[in-house]
């Protein structure tokens, strides 16, 4: 019931919107399922969660992803005429997807997310053998501060006082 109300509110909101930027990001969950999220952005402030595209049963081809996007947008009554740009990461499948979208909708700008590029660079740098000792030392340091009660409490207090929302964590 809550989801249905949210869905109706989303449809009503997006019905009158134009110049939307469509954002697509995908990942594989812990069970190996391939999931893509589809968001509509309006300016820098308004973000609308459109759909989760479950593609675990399909090959991750640009055609299959495009088909899933078209189906999702159609079910939400969002035409490609309302979309002005598509933001994706930059693997070859996404580059081809942007090309396919642009063939049918030449008015849509193709934008590659630079944060994904930086993330890939950071992963490659941290995976290089010369950084092994640095990564290992940082993991030890983060684990120490997160498990030592006294320091964890001081770190949490300092974060709150300085308006820092994210804490220490090891990502690799």
UniProtKB/TrEMBL annotation:
Residues 11-137 form the DUF659 domain. GO terms for biological process: regulation of transcription by RNA polymerase II. The lineage of its organism: Eukaryota, Fungi, Dikarya, Basidiomycota, Pucciniomycotina. Transmembrane segments: none annotated. InterPro entries: DUF659 (IPR007021), RNaseH-like_sf (IPR012337), Vacuolar_transposase_reg (IPR052717). It comes from the Eukaryota. This is DUF659 domain-containing protein. GO terms for cellular component: nucleus. Coiled coil: none annotated.
